[in-house]
Protein: ATP-binding cassette domain-containing protein
Amino acid sequence: MNEPLNISDTTINLSTRTPILEIKNLKKSFGNKAVLNGFNLKLFEGENLVIMGKSGAGKSVMVKCLVGLMLPDSGSITVMGQDINALNRMDLDKLRTEIGFLFQGSALYDSMTVRENLEFPLRRHKHKFGNITDTEPLVLEALKSVGLENTIDLMPSELSGGMQRRVALARALILKPKIILYDEPTSGLDPITSKEIIELMRRVQQQYKTSSLIITHDVDCARVVSERMILLVDGVNYAEGTFEALKASTDKNVKAFFK
Ligand SMILES: Nc1ncnc2c1ncn2[C@@H]1O[C@H](COP(=O)(O)OP(=O)(O)OP(=O)(O)O)[C@@H](O)[C@H]1O
Structure:
């Protein structure tokens, strides 16, 4: 296994921290095309970890393996100490409530109000909070954390693209996950709305004390939200370090990310 280029930064000390999510030696090929070639990752409690990779580098394949939508050829994924490939459906479903997702297309259900969209995960994962008869306080709390409590009875079509993404984040937060997985959280948004989402991601982390895995192409987003970054090149974690340390690197593959 190749060691990643460790662009060290003395301001972060990882040895004292516990990984909440760990990917070990993940491999996935399609035919004779190796997409993930022994990818490793540790997400520590309370950190914002950004993964950057060029288009086609295998970020989506990695996310699909992580959420159980795709089986890796080999390697392991451990979430809160549990190997996800060893879990039965029920236990996997339970564990999924500890991970909130904000995907690119984070589609809200068009035919449901904002309230109903947020109630959906509460009803689906009853085991987490029990059978809640009054969902309104939880719905309002989640909407408040994204600054949109006044949209509770609106339809998604009445919201701007940025507001829809914030509601989708509220829907991810309502189950109080320990980990949030953001896949291209700013894609398709104008620069001002992107900035709002980026600020919100920082606030959410402080308020909910989540650990976040953020997959993005957006260098600005990476600069603002990342505590640490991993650059995915040729199916492996090519380089790791803080944004500033990586940006200062003279390695040509690393420099290519910051042009
Ligand atoms: N189901 C599949 N069958 C065959 N090849 C696939 C499949 N899924 C992904 N690939 C291939 O794996 C490679 C990595 O794809 P992936 O979607 O993970 O890239 P990415 O890093 O997410 O790119 P982007 O930033 O453009 O979304 C691509 O070459 C893609 O064609």
